[in-house]
Design a protein that fits this description.
The complex is a heterotrimer of chains A (271), B (295) and C (437). The two termini of chain A are 38 Å apart. The longest helix of chain A has 36 residues, at 235-270. Chain A has 13 helices and no strands. Chain A is mainly α and 271 residues long. Chain A has 2 domains: 1-48, no CATH class; 54-270, MetI-like fold. Chain A has helices spanning 2-28, 33-36, 50-57, 61-92, 98-109, 113-127, 133-158, 161-169, 174-185, 187-203, 206-211, 220-225, 235-270. Chain B has helices at 2-33, 53-60, 62-94, 100-112, 115-125, 132-138, 154-180, 184-192, 197-225, 229-234, 246-256, 260-291, and strands at residues 36-37, 48-49. Chain B has 295 residues and is mainly α. Chain C folds into 3 domains: 1-30; 35-149 and 314-380, D-Maltodextrin-Binding Protein, domain 2, CATH 3.40.190.10; 151-312 and 386-432, 3-Layer(aba) Sandwich (D-Maltodextrin-Binding Protein, domain 2), CATH 3.40.190.10. Chain C has helices spanning 2-33, 52-61, 76-88, 104-110, 122-125, 130-136, 158-163, 172-186, 202-213, 232-245, 259-267, 279-284, 327-338, 340-350, 363-368, 371-380, 391-407, 413-432, and strands at residues 36-43, 65-72, 96-100, 137-138, 141-142, 145-151, 153-157, 192-195, 220-221, 226-227, 271-276, 296-299, 313-320, 353-354. The termini of chain C are far apart. The chains are: A mainly alpha (271), B mainly alpha (295), C alpha+beta (437). At the A-B interface, helix 1, helix 4, helix 5, helix 6 and helix 7 of A face helix 1, helix 3, helix 4, helix 5 and helix 7 of B.
């Protein structure tokens, strides 16, 4: 009995910790401009949609969201495709330098983005890929590959060899064994890796800032960070844009929370 | 054997191409540029190879030293907070009770929100006129309102709060995964042996959690050393350089001032620090694995 | 019979499809071929009269041309980083852009802005105020056309000053005393004496420069290319701000304020004195946006005894990107926006101070904005920040120094100033050996 009560209190505490800051901001988006600057601040807004209208119409929020979907989606898809193939090789082919390679990947992911941003930018410049979707997607693939490869390698290592051996003996090529057997079994792991990569590329700010300077192509984080305002800090619009931007993500995580946890479980502990 | 190696390389090829072009090459370029004097707004100076000069300047640069202190303070404060909050959350979520799924979903929310969004959110919460922070502390008494982002002592703390809020859930997930992989029998055996809840936690749970905790520690340390988005949105390095972390200082040098050589040296510095810390962690991680599961 | 009908139907449908496709393709071709796009990067204005109306007029006068306006951040610092990133990207998608008054030297030296001498003759340059023109010149060439001029001004609550029989202050010490008097008698806990911009950003240099120069000090010695931050008069001014203003008549929150936040404090009626650019006049007098409309006065900034009032020169100019493929058309747009008629229109509708000298004697303009007559001297004498390609590093050093000294009351001002001066000198050494133009 006491334990249940304690659990309830802690759970409530956790829920408050996670939700209150976000709810406060979300509620702000529904205030009227006068309520926004009221001192002391009002907790419950009257439900005005002014800020949403302003954010959508005047700031082009939908375009930012569309761009983010394109960039994050493409980056995730390609990263998982390339990473899964690489991870399979690392997990199965008993190469002597596997661990060294994985460590190297880890080392690469440690480099501060601000430094490689410059050379990446000049590389994209040479390729004439600046201010294009493919330029940013290429950069994102390179940034996410280390993490994706690490996670996927761990998962693939857990898949028992027997089924594959049987298929190989039956005449399957390595690639077919990979494609038809290992992939379906590791679906949870692949899914986890995909979700992690998607969230990372969706949230990424710095490269998006310097690679995409054309507002038609800019992604959501850049759009929100650069919300202009000549006379006042447009808190209302920022709150509205932020709420809109995060609702899809929240929906995704709510739907797939079990998968995420299970995926991380297998990866984190074994890895 | 060799044919399988060739096949392996084929599988790895796309990966290698991307990683070489967009990771190896830029890192190498960054290293190379750190040995040059390169100032974009003074093109007539040319790109002169200056050897270690950028590094010696960095070594004697009081702003860089301050920046290093700020960054390390940030790391040393956020990591324990994230770990303890994360551990606490994970322990609660490990219990079986109704609504557990919902709670798990809720704690993912801070993590799912883009950093630039949560930065703006916290900036608004800490606003000196309309923020929730002041309202909770002082109610309607506006004369006592604080301005955390204008105070060199409070501003770093505000950034830390924003960071921990977002990353503790991520740590909680990793730890939860670790908790769930501990077989029940271990706890049963400990109970039979007469261990209290606290003793079970200290002598069974914690040691078995070590790999998960160290992994969380590793990822979080690397990320904390590179923190940028929060500072860019919330404080732009101020006030009085109180939140001028190394990544932001490097950004200012490279992108605002056009001093590419010096900025690259700063980045290499951050990388070396991450590398050293990671090697230390991996050492500890490996040795803890070798210990095996205590019986 | 049926099969014929069916065949005819199918044939009809196919033709319809072909027709639709043709129309679609034509419409695509039409939108691509007939229209030339000119890309213009600037910050968003809350008044449609500032950009939207003039752009619409330009498009009307130049059929077939569409000006695409790209919106950047309001903060000059962030806008600078955005625009320079485009220029570093050799972005051909940017033709015309706004330049803050401190950028021309940097952009000229880096080869980002197009020299405008072949378009912008000396005779025409003389039509503009001298200070902004000088700020746009670098090594004998001109790189921008001034659109409007900004200079730091003091705004005050006329109603409060009248209520307590206090005249508009002439010197900074007077301002402090008057603020204290009014605060003591108003007994409003939400009222502060002074609202300015003291966040660690570019605006901080403007605010502090006004204090330093009005005490007879300076930020640098242009001829010798050395910093003068550690000279006694400069130190004195900084000490005054730290000890008598921040935390005294201005609450410490101003250390995180840029223009928007500091202006809101004033327009909400919570500040007696306010330092800002000329645009604040219209905003504060707009009853829809301000609670103090009609109750404010505007005057040149105070000075220290023995010195004279100094306003930091601000303002925005139009420049053409060196990588633009449409420089002729871009110039037509720039000339249009900065022409006499358009500048007059913008001045009348937004209250921003024009860069063309003739408008300060224009009857229509003076009828609506009588204060421009009294501000003429202020604008003529506005002082620019150091004009050098390395201004950004210099500014960062100064921002660091000012912010540290103001936000940490226990710091040793002399020591910090000496360090800042040393750092500035090192940066200035880089331009000492600049090649002859």
């Amino acid at each position: 009995m006491k334990r249940t009560a304690m659990m309830a209190i802690f759970s409530l505490g956790i829920a408050v910790y996670c939700l209150v800051p976000y709810l406060w901001f979300a509620l702000t988006s529904w205030k009227s401009p006068a309520e926004l600057t009221a001192i002391p601040p009002q907790l419950i807004p009257s439900f005005h949609w002014d800020f949403y209208r302003s954010a959508l119409e005047e700031r082009g929020l939908l375009r930012y969201i569309a761009n983010s979907i394109i960039v994050a989606g493409a980056a995730t898809g390609i990263t998982i495709a390339i990473g899964a193939v690489a991870a399979y090789a690392l997990a199965r082919f008993q190469l002597p330098w596997t661990n060294a390679y994985l460590l190297l990947l880890l080392a690469i992911s440690m480099f501060p983005q601000i430094a490689i941003a410059g050379p990446v930018w000049s590389l994209l410049n040479h390729l004439d890929w600046l201010n294009t979707y493919r330029g940013l997607v290429a950069a994102y693939i390179a940034l996410s590959l280390p993490l994706a490869t690490l996670i996927l390698t761990t998962f693939f290592r857990e898949v028992p060899h027997e089924i594959e051996e049987a298929a190989l003996i039956d005449g399957c090529s390595r690639f077919q064994a990979f494609y038809k057997i290992v992939l379906p079994i590791s679906a949870p792991g692949i899914f986890t890796a995909a979700l992690l990569v998607f969230i990372y590329t969706w949230n990424e700010f710095f490269f998006a800032l310097i690679v995409l300077t054309d507002p038609n192509l800019q992604t959501l984080p850049v759009g929100i960070a650069l919300f202009p305002g000549e006379y006042t800090m447009p808190w209302g619009e920022i709150a509205a844009a932020s709420t809109l931007a995060t609702l899809p993500l929240i929906a995704l995580t709510l739907l797939f929370q079990r998968g995420i946890v299970r995926g991380l479980a297998a990866g984190a502990v074994k890895g | 054997m060799r044919s399988s190696h060739r096949l392996a390389l084929l599988f790895l090829l796309p990966s290698l191409i991307f990683v070489s072009l967009f990771a190896f090459y830029p890192i190498f370029e960054s290293f190379r540029l750190s040995f040059y004097r390169s100032i974009l707004t003074l093109p007539w100076l040319g790109q002169k190879m200056v050897g270690w000069e950028n590094y010696t300047d960095l070594w004697t640069d009081p702003v860089a030293a301050e920046s290093l202190r700020t960054t390390l303070f940030f790391v040393v404060t956020t990591i324990p907070l994230e770990l303890s909050f994360g551990l606490g959350m994970a322990l609660v979520m490990n219990e079986v009770f109704r609504g557990r799924g919902l709670l798990r979903a809720v704690i993912l929310i801070p993590w799912a929100i883009p950093t630039v969004v949560s930065s703006q959110m916290w900036r608004f919460i800490f606003n000196d006129r309309y923020g929730l922070f002041n309202f909770l502390l002082f109610g309607g008494d506006a004369s006592r309102y604080l301005a955390p982002l204008a105070d060199p002592t409070l501003a770093p703390l505000a950034i830390i709060v924003a960071e921990v809020w977002k990353t503790a859930p991520f740590v909680a997930l990793i730890v939860l995964a670790g908790l769930q992989s501990i077989p029940d029998e271990v706890y049963e055996a400990a109970s039979i042996d007469g261990a209290t809840s606290w003793q079970q936690f200290r002598y069974v749970t914690l040691p078995l959690l070590r790999p998960a905790l160290l992994l969380a520690l590793l990822f979080r340390t690397i990320d904390a050393l590179r923190v940028f988005d929060l500072v860019y949105v919330m404080t732009q390095g101020g006030p009085a350089d109180a939140t001028n972390v190394l990544s932001f200082y490097g950004y200012k040098k490279i992108f605002a001032e056009g001093m590419v050589g010096y900025g690259s040296a700063i980045a290499v510095g951050v990388f070396l620090i991450s590398l050293i810390l990671s090697l230390v962690y991996l050492r500890i991680l490996k040795s803890s694995r070798l210990e095996g599961i205590p019986r | 019979m049926n099969s014929l009908v069916v065949k005819a139907g199918r044939c009809h449908a196919r033709n319809l499809c072909r027709l639709t496709a043709l129309i679609f393709l034509c419409s695509l071709g039409h939108s691509f071929a007939a229209e030339t796009q000119l890309r213009f990067v600037t910050w968003k204005s809350e008044t449609a009269q500032l950009w939207d109306q003039p752009i619409a007029d330009f498009e009307k006068q130049n059929p077939g041309v569409k000006v695409i306006r790209e919106i950047g951040p309001q903060s000059s610092t962030q806008l600078h980083d955005l625009i320079t990133q485009k220029l570093k990207n050799r972005d051909t998608e940017m033709d015309v852009f706004v330049m803050d008054v401190i950028w021309p030297a940097e952009f000229a030296s880096a080869g980002w802005a197009l020299p405008l001498d072949r378009f912008f003759a000396l005779a025409e340059q003389k039509q503009f105020l001298d200070a902004p023109i000088q700020a746009n010149r670098y090594r004998g060439q001109i790189f921008g056309v001034p659109l409007f001029v900004d200079a730091g001004l003091l705004y005050y609550r006329k109603d409060l000053l009248e209520k307590y029989g206090v005249p508009p202050p002439r010197t900074w010490p007077e301002l402090v005393e008057e603020a204290k008097t009014i605060l003591a008698q108003e007994k409003d806990p939400q009222l502060v004496g002074f609202s300015g911009q003291f966040k660690q950003y570019e605006g901080l240099v403007c605010n502090m420069m006004e204090f330093v120069l009005s005490n007879g000090g300076n930020l640098w010695n242009e001829k010798q290319l050395v910093s003068t931050l550690n000279q006694p008069r400069a130190l004195e001014a900084v000490r005054f701000v730290r000890d008598r203003i921040i935390g005294q008549i201005a609450h410490r929150g101003v250390l995180a304020y840029e223009e928007p936040e500091s202006l809101v404090l004033f327009t909400e009626g919570r500040a007696i004195f306010h330092r800002n650019w000329p645009y604040a006049w219209n905003v504060a007098n707009d009853s829809q946006r301000s609670k103090i409309a009609g109750k404010i006065g505007m005057m040149p900034l105070p000075y220290f005894p023995g010195g004279k009032g100094v306003a930091a020169l601000g303002g925005w100019q139009l420049a053409i990107s060196r990588f633009s493929k449409k420089s002729e058309l871009a110039w037509r747009f720039v000339a249009f926006m900065t022409g006499h008629a358009m500048q007059k229109r913008i001045t009348l509708s937004t209250g921003r101070a024009p860069a063309r000298a003739a408008l300060y004697n224009d009857r229509e303009v003076l009828d609506q904005l009588p204060q421009l007559k009294s501000l003429w001297e202020t604008f003529k004498q506005a002082v620019p920040r150091p004009t050098t390609p390395v201004y950004v590093p210099l500014s960062n050093i100064m921002q660091r120094y000012f912010s540290s000294v103001l936000a940490l009351p226990d710091t040793n001002i002399d020591k910090r100033a000496a360090l800042a001066a040393r750092d500035m000198d090192r940066v200035l050494d880089l331009v000492r050996e600049a090649p002859a133009p």
